[in-house]
C-alpha cells in the first residue's frame, strides 16, 4: 500500500506525510514514530533550546528524522542551526522568515531544505533561495500562520512552481487531519502534506493531557487566530503572524486588550507559564487548528499515519501515480 509522489521518492519514504516541527510538542519520540511509520517526522526546534534539542535527537534513536526552526528566533541563536545539522538530519525545516541566508549551509550538510510559506510572495523568495521543498500553509493551521486559505494558496503556489521552478517540491499545510485532507492536498497540486494538529493529538506528543482534552471536545468554530497567548508567553513575534488556538477563558478575557496585557508584563508571563506546566486550561490554551473538530481521540502516531494513507489511497482510487 502506497501513494507514490515526488515527495516519497525524494525523501525515500512510503507515505507523503510529514509531521510538523511543532515547538515544545514535537519531540524525538513523535518524530521517530512518524518516520518509522513511513512518513517523515520532524523535531520542533522552535524558539531554540540547545539542551532540549539534544535530548530530542537522543530520544529519536536511529530513526531518520528532521528538525525545524522558527527562523526569526533562530537568527538570534545561529549556533543552533549548526547544532541540529551536526546530527545529519534528513531535512531542515524553516518557517516565519527569509530562508535565504541559511539554505546553502543546510544543503552543504546534506539535509533537504524545506521552507514553509504563507503567501505567494514568500514562495517566490523560497524558490529564489533554492529551497528543495516549499510548504504552502493556510490560515486553518494550528499554531502560527497568516491569512491565506489552504484551498487557494496551494494551487496558486503549484502554478508558480510549475512555471518558475518545476524541480521544487510542494507540500500543503493547514487543515489536513485525515485521508480526505491528504487526497485533497494531492489534488490541489501538492506532492504531500505537512500535518500538525493531528500529530499534536497523538500519544507521543509532549502535551499535557488536560490540553489534549480541551482540543478533543472543541470544534473548528472554537479556534481563533490571536496574539494574546504570544504576549502571555513573552514572545516578540513579527506582526504579520498570529497563532491559532482553542479559545478559553483567558483568551476571551484579553482579546482586544493586547496593549493592556503587554503592560501587565512579567506577572502575566509567570502565571501563563505555570498554567501550561500544570495543564490549567482556564489559562493555557490548546494550540490546535480548525481540524480540531475532526480529531476525537489521542492515538499513536503510527495509527494516524497508516489510516491517513489508507483513506487517501482509497479516495484516490488506488491508481494514483504522479
Ligand atoms: C502545537 C503547534 C505548534 C506549532 N509550532 C510550529 C513551529 O514551531 N514551527 C513551525 O514552523 N510551525 C509550527 N506549527 C505550524 C505547523 O508547521 C503547520 O503549519 C500546521 O500545524 C499545519 O496545520 P494543521 O495544524 O491544521 O495540521 C505548529 C502547529 C501546532 C499545531
Q: Strand-and-helix sequence, N→C?
A: HEHEHEHHEHEHEEHEHEHHEHEHHHH
The geometry reads as globular
Strand content: 5-15%
CATH superfamily of the largest domain: Aldolase class I
CATH architectural grouping of the largest domain = Alpha-Beta Barrel
What's the number of domains? 2
Short description:
The protein is 42% helix and 15% strand. It is α/β, with parallel strands linked by helices and 322 residues long. It has an 8-stranded parallel β-sheet. Strands 7-11-10 form a 3-stranded antiparallel β-sheet.
Describe, in plain words, how this protein is organized in 3D.
This protein is α/β, with parallel strands linked by helices and 322 residues long. It has two domains: 6-204 and 300-315, TIM Barrel, CATH 3.20.20; 209-291, no CATH class. It contains 16 helices and eleven strands. It has helices spanning 6-11, 28-36, 50-59, 71-74, 79-85, 103-108, 120-129, 150-164, 179-187, 197-200, 209-216, 228-233, 249-254, 258-264, 266-278, 301-315; strands spanning 17-19, 42-44, 66-70, 91-95, 112-117, 133-137, 143-145, 169-173, 192-195, 223-226, 242-246. The strands form two sheets. Strands 1-9-8-6-5-4-3-2 form an eight-stranded parallel β-sheet. It has a three-stranded antiparallel β-sheet with strand order 7-11-10. Helix 7 runs parallel beside helix 8 (150-164) and helix 9 crosses helix 16 (301-315). It is globular. The chain starts with 5 loop residues before the first helix and ends in a 7-residue tail after the last helix. The mean pLDDT is 96. The chain binds flavin mononucleotide (FMN). Flavin mononucleotide binds next to strand 3, strand 9 and helix 10. Flavin mononucleotide binds at residues 20-23, 25, 44, 46, 68, 70, 95, 116, 137, 140-143, 173-176, 194-198, 200, 287-289, 291.
Amino acid at each position: 500500500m502506497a501513494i507514490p509522489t515526488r515527495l516519497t521518492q525524494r525523501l525515500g519514504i512510503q507515505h507523503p506525510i510529514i509531521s510538523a516541527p511543532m515547538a515544545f510538542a514535537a519531540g524525538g519520540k513523535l518524530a521517530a514514530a512518524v518516520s518509522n511509520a513511513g512518513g517523515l517526522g520532524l523535531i520542533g526546534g522552535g524558539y531554540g533550546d540547545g539542551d532540549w534539542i539534544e535530548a530530542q535527537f537522543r530520544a529519536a534513536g536511529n530513526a531518520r528524522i528532521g528538525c525545524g526552526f522558527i527562523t526569526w528566533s533562530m537568527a538570534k541563536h545561529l549556533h543552533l542551526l549548526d547544532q541540529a545539522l551536526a546530527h545529519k538530519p534528513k531535512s531542515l525545516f524553516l518557517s516565519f522568515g527569509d530562508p535565504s541566508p541559511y539554505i546553502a549551509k543546510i544543503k552543504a550538510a546534506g539535509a533537504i531544505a524545506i521552507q514553509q510559506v504563507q503567501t505567494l510572495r514568500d514562495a517566490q523568495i523560497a524558490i529564489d533561495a533554492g529551497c528543495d521543498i516549499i510548504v504552502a500553509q493556510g490560515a486553518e493551521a494550528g499554531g502560527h500562520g497568516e491569512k491565506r486559505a489552504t484551498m487557494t494558496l496551494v494551487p496558486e503556489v503549484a502554478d508558480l512552481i510549475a512555471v518558475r521552478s518545476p524541480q521544487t517540491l510542494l507540500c500543503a499545510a493547514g487543515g489536513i487531519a485525515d485521508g480526505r485532507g491528504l487526497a485533497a492536498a494531492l489534488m490541489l497540486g501538492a506532492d504531500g502534506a505537512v500535518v500538525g494538529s493531528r500529530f499534536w493529538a497523538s500519544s507521543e506528543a509532549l502535551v499535557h493531557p488536560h490540553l489534549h482534552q480541551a482540543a478533543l471536545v472543541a470544534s473548528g468554530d472554537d479556534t481563533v487566530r490571536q496574539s494574546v497567548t504570544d504576549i502571555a508567553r513573552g514572545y516578540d513575534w513579527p506582526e504579520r503572524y498570529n497563532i491559532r488556538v482553542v479559545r478559553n477563558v483567558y483568551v476571551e478575557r484579553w482579546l482586544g486588550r493586547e496593549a493592556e496585557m503587554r503592560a501587565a508584563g512579567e506577572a502575566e508571563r509567570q502565571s501563563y507559564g505555570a498554567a501550561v506546566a500544570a495543564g490549567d486550561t482556564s489559562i493555557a490554551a490548546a494550540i490546535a487548528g480548525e481540524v480540531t473538530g475532526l480529531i476525537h481521540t489521542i492515538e499513536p502516531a503510527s495509527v494516524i499515519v497508516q489510516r491517513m494513507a489508507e483513506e487517501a489511497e482509497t479516495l484516490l482510487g488506488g491508481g494514483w501515480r504522479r
